[in-house]
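ok trying this again, last paste got cut off
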Amino acid sequence: MAIYSPRTRLVNFRLSEDEYQTLKDAAVRQGARSISDFARAAILTSVGNPKTENGQADLSNLDRKVSEIQGTVERISGILSRVQTHSHAS
């Protein structure tokens, strides 16, 4: 179970409309609960704290790992297809 640490500090910064849309799109792609959660995780990761409030790896690392696994599965699938084709041809 995660230990909750109350958030009492506020960080405020301005974004252009384009920057905000980019941030919002990235948060949606990563499956973040909110833009705030996404921005917090991204900033903390960039300063060397790769953990979110519940101790899980940040979403961008998870996304990268899932992409790596997907690529490996696709390579294995391709190898198996070639092996099957070769064995049927023999």
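PB: full thing came through this time. The chain has one domain: 17-89.
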